[in-house]
Amino acid sequence: MPVTLCTLGVGATFGESILQDLPRDSTVVTQTTCELLRVEQQDFRLIWEKNKELMNDLVANCKLKNGFGPGVNSKSPMHRPKSPPTRRSLSPDQPNPAEPITDAPSTVMGRIGWTLRTLLLSQNTCLKDRKVSGKLVRKCAPGTELVDWILSLSPIIHTRAQGAGMWQALLEEGVISHVAKEQGFKDKCFLYRFWQDEEGAGALPTMEDINTAEEQIHESLSTLIQRGPDAVLRMILRKPSHERSSDDLETIYEELLHIRALSHLSNSIKRELASAVVFEAHPKAGSVLFHQGDEGRSWYIILRGSVDVVIHGKGTVTTLQEGDDFGKLALINDAPRAATIVLRENNCHFLRVDKDNFNRTLRDVEANTVRLKEHGKDVLILEKISTQQKQSFSHFKYTVMAGTPQKMLEHLLETRLDGRGNFGGGDNFIMTTAHDPFLDDFLLTHVVFMPTHHLVDELANQYPFYTSLPDREFLLACKSRVVQFVYKWVTTIRQPVFDDESAVEFLEDLASEVENDCIQLDALQEEASLMHHAMTQFRRYQEDRKANSGQKWKLPPCGQPIGLFSGNKDSRTIIMPQDDIIFRVYCADHTYCTLRLPVDSTAETIKLCAADKLKLRPNDELLLVEVKSNGERVTFKDNDISIPTALSLNGRIFVSPKDHLDALTCLSEQEESTQGIDGDLELFSTKELAYYMTLFDWDLFWCVHEYELLYHTFGRHHFGQITANLDVFLRRFNELQFWVVTEICMTSSLSKRVAVLRKFIKLAAYCKEYQNLNAFCAIVMGLSNMAISRLSLTWEKLPSKFRKLYTEFESLIDPSRNHRSYRVSVSKLQPPIVPFMPLLLKDMTFTHEGNKTSLDGLVNFEKMHMLAQTLRTIRFCRSRHLVLDPPSPKSEGEVKSYISCLRVIDNQRILTGMSQKLEPRRS
Ligand SMILES: Nc1ncnc2c1ncn2[C@@H]1O[C@@H]2COP(=O)(O)O[C@H]2[C@H]1O
Q: CATH classification of 552-670, choosing from 3.40.640.10, 3.40.50.300, 3.30.450.40, 3.10.20.90?
C-alpha cells in the first residue's frame, strides 16, 4: 500500500533524480489544483553543469526539506559530501538513534570512514554483498563482525563495548548506517554499510588508496577511541526513556554529575533526571531553537556549542555556552518565551527536559536565584518565592529581586500580563497579585526608579507601532500586554498619570494607535475597549480639573489649618501642584509680606519673591527658614517644595540673611494657642464629635495619594512633587494631639478638668469604634503627654472605669516590639479604616534607610516590594466607602465647624508650664 512520505507546498521542488538517470523513486500526486513550473531534463542538466556548486546545494537542500532519499552521491572516496548519505529531518521530539546527528560527516570522520572501508575491502573480510528479505544489499557487515575486526586492529581497544562505541561514532555522522535505518550501532547481527555503498556498491580501493589507509589507520583509531564513549552516551540518551536499562541510567546519571547547570541539584534529583533527559542535536548554525513569545515546552542545557539569546528590538543580548542552561523562565512562570534562541555553531548538542518532567522533578527544587545577563552585565535577578497556590503545579515562582528598570518592565509585560485574554483585573489578576504582587509593586513604586517619562518611552518601545511581523500572534500579544499594563496603571494610579504631560501624550497616541490597529489587524477589539475606558476616565478627570482649576488655599496667619480660600468647597478637594497658596513670610523684625504662589514653588522662588517684597538687600545671602513655636529653626534647601503645607502647627516662614539667622525669634502669637472656632467642648455630644471628626479625617485621608508617602520618604526635592495633602493630614494628627493637651491644660477647675479628661477618653473610644485610628492614637498620645500624665489630682478623680479604659488604650499605642499591639489589632479590622499615618511613614522611612535603592547598578526591587506593602495598606484602608450610622443630631453645624479648627498650643514648654500651674508638684 503506498504511503505518503511528505506533502510539498508552494515553492518546493521535486524530481531531482533526473540528474542521476535513475527511475523515479516515488509517485507524486496533486492534492488540489496545482500550477507547476517544469524544467526539462536536458535543460536541467545544462544548468547543472554551469552552476554545479549552486545546484548541488539547492538539490541537497530540497532533499533535506522534502525528506527524500539519498543525496548527490559522489564516487570520490575523499570527497566530503555536501549532504549526508542519509537525508532526514531531525525530529527533536522523537530522537531516533538510527539517524545521524550531523547534516553531513565531518571531514575527520569522513576520512576515518574511508580508511576503515578501504582496509575492510582490501582484506576482503566482513564487508560482503548479502541478500536481505530477497533483496541484494551491497557490501554490508553484521555489527558483531565489525566489532571483531576493529578489536583485531589494536591492542588498546579492550572491550567489545569500546569497539561498538567507535562504530557508533561513525554512525552518528552518517559514515555508516544500519541497512534498514532502524538501529543505532549494536554489537549484534544487524547489518551495517558505509554510505558509499548505499546506492549500490561504491568504488573499490586502488593500491594507492590501501597504502594511504594503512598509513592513516593508527591515527584514525585513536580518534575513534576518544569519540566512542560520547557517542555511546548520546546513543543511550537518544533511547526513549522506557527503553533505558539500569546500566544506561547509571551512565546518564554519572554524566549529569558533571554538568554545571545541575550542580545545585541533589543526587536523587539527578537520578530522577537520568530517565527524563532527552538528547537533541541541531546541525546548522543560525537555526532557531524557539522564538520569543512561543509557548515554553522544555528546559535546555547546552552540552556542546553555543547559542545566542535574541530579544525583539534589542538583538542578541547574550551568548550562552557549554554547561549553561536556558528556557526555564517560561516554564516556571507559565509565561511565553522571553527570548529567541539561535544556534551560533553547527552541530550544537543539548539535553532537554520536557515541561511535564520539569514540573514533576525540578520546578520546586530549582535554584533559588536566577540571573539574566545582557552584554555581560546582570539585568535581572529573580528569586524563588512560595506562592501557596494549590491549583498550580508547584508552590513556587520566580519573583524579581533586582533589575534594570527596562528589563523589569519587559519581564513584567511578558510574565505577569497575559498576551491575550486576561483583561481588566479579573479574578486572575487578583490571584496573581495576592501571591506575587510584582505588577502592583511596580505601579506603586516606579516613580522611584523610573520616572513617568521614561516609563512611557519604554512602553512605546514595547508596543510595536507596526502591523506586520511574521508572527501575527506574537505581534498581537505584545500590543495587548502594553494596553493591559496601561489600563492597570491608569486605573490604579490615576491622578499622577493624568497630571503628567508625557503620560497624557502617550495615552492619546496609544489610544489612536490601538484604534487603527483594531481596523487593520481585525483584532485587538478588547484592547480598544480598555483604552476607550481608560481615556473616558482621563476625560472625566480633565473635566473635574477644569471645574476645580484656579483653586486658592490659605495658610491662615494664626496657625489654623490650611483651608480653601476660594474654589470648589467640596470637602474632598485635593490640593494640586498648580493651585495657589496664600501665606506670610516674616523678617527678623517680624514685619511680613503676604505671598500667593503655586503650591509646588520651590524654597528658592519663595525666598526671591519675599526678598523682593520685603525689600531685602539682594546681595545678602538669604535663607528661607521655619521658626517653630519653641524657637527652633529649620532651614529649607533651595529645591525643597510644598513649604507652606509642611510647616509645624504654629510654625512661621522667615526669610533672613545667613548671618542673621541666630537673631530670629518666634512671634509672640506663636506661643499662644492658635485661634480655634468658638464652642464649648463639654456641650457637644461625644459621639457626635467622634462621628464628625471621623468624616472630616476620612476626607483628608481620602485626598492623600500613595505617591505622596514616597515623596515624603525620599525627600520632596528628590521628585519635585508636592506632598501637600499628606502634610495636611499629618498636621491634623498633630493638631488633635495638641488640642487634647491644650484643652485640658486650659481648664483650671479640677472637676471640669476631670470631666474633659473623661470626655477625651470617651472620644478615643468612639474613634476606635469608628476605626478612625489616626484620631484615636492622636487623642491617646495627647493624654499620655507629660503635661497631662503628671496631673495626678485629675487622674485620681477619674472614675476607675475610665482609668481602666485608658490603660487599655495606652497599651494599644505602646511602641514596644515595633508597635506590635497596634499592628495586631489593626490586622483584625476590615476597611474602611483611617490608619495611624505616622506609623506608616515610620515604616516607609525604616525601609528606605535600611535598604539601598540600587545594588550594583540594579534597582533593589526587594526594597520597592517592602515600600509597596505599606502603600497597599493605605489602599486597603480606603477600599470601602465610609458609611457610619449618624448619631442623633444635636448640634451638627456647631460640631462640624468646631472640629474643623481646634485651638492648639504646640509648644511643649508652655504646656508643661500651664500644667504645673494647675497642679504644682506636691512636695
Ligand atoms: N537577558 C535575558 N533575557 C531573557 N531571557 C534570557 C536572558 N538571558 C538568558 N535568557 C534565557 O533565554 C530563555 C528564553 O526562554 P525562557 O523565557 O523560557 O527562559 C529564558 C532564559 O532562560
A: 3.10.20.90
Q: How far is CA 331 from CA 336, 354, 509, in A?
A: 8, 10, 35
Q: Determine the residue of 288, 301, 309 to mutate for testing ligand 1's pocket, defined as the one with the most ligand atoms within 8 A of the Cβ atom.
A: 309
Other CB atoms within 10 Å distance of the CB of residue 528: 18
User: ipTM of this predicted complex?
Assistant: 0.99
The ranges assigned to domains in the chain are: 6-56, 107-239, 371-418+436-548, 552-670, 686-832+880-918
Nearest residue to 216 via CA among 74, 73, 77: 77
Give the integer Cα–Cα distance in Å for 383 and 396. 10
Phi and psi at residue 136, in whole multiples of 5°? -85, 125
What distance in Å separates the CA atoms of residue 864 and residue 847, rounded to the nearest whole number? 9
What's the CATH number of domain 371-418+436-548, 1.10.3720.10, 1.20.870.10, 3.30.70.100, 3.40.50.720? 1.20.870.10
The CB of 408 under 6 Å from ligand 1? The reply is no
Residue 899 sits at φ, ψ, to 5 deg, of -70, -15
Contact 214, 116 (CB under 8 A): no
CA–centroid distance, residue 738 to ligand 1 (Å): 58
C-alpha of residue 102 to centroid of ligand 1, in Å: 26
What is the architecture of the domain spanning 107-239? Orthogonal Bundle (1.10)
Grid cell for residue 194: 558505509
* Rounded distance from Cα 411 to ligand 1 centre (Å): 10
Name the residue with the closest Cα to ligand 1, atom 19.
Answer: 327
User: Can you tell me whether residue 289 is helix, strand or coil?
Assistant: strand
Residue 819 CB less than 6 A away from ligand 1: no
Q: Is the CB of 903 under 6 A from ligand 1?
A: no
Whose CA is closest to atom 22 on ligand 1?
326
Taking the C-alpha atoms of residue 76 and residue 106, their distance in angstroms, rounded to an integer, is 16
Q: What is the dihedral sign for C-alpha 714, 717, 720, 726?
A: positive
Q: Which amino acid residue places its CA nearest to atom 2 of ligand 1?
A: 372
Q: pLDDT below 70 — which residues of the chain? A: 1-27, 29, 31-35, 37, 39-95, 387-395, 419-436, 469, 569, 619, 922-923
| Nearest atom (ligand 1) to Cα of 340 | 14
Closest residue to atom 11 of ligand 1, CA basis: 326
Q: Can you tell me the distance from the alpha carbon of 112 to that of 434, in angstroms, rounded to the nearest whole number?
A: 63
Instruction: Calculate how far, in angstroms, residue 309's C-alpha sits from the geometric centre of ligand 1.
Output: 7
Residue 629 contacts residue 650 (beta carbons within 8 Å): yes
C-beta 326 within 6 A of ligand 1: yes
**Terminal C-alpha separation, the chain:** 119
CATH number of 686-832+880-918: 1.10.840.10
d(CA 567, CA 680): 30
Distance in angstroms (rounded) separating the CA atoms of residues 459 and 664: 51
Ligand 1: nearest atom to the Cα of 317? 1
C-beta of residue 199 within 8 angstroms of C-beta of residue 85: no
Smallest CA separation from ligand 1 atom 8, residue = 372
Atom of ligand 1 nearest to the CA of 373: 1
306-352 residue pLDDT tens: 999 999 989 999 999 999 999 999 988 888 999 999 999 999 999 99
**Model pLDDT, residue 33:** 60
The closest alpha carbon to 225, from 293, 157, 305, belongs to 157
Q: Is residue 367 lining ligand 1, measured as CB closer than 6 Å?
A: no
Residue 875 CA to residue 877 CA, distance in Å, equals: 5
Of ligand 1's atoms, which has the minimum distance to the CA of residue 380? 1
Ligand 1 contact, 330 CB (< 6 A): yes
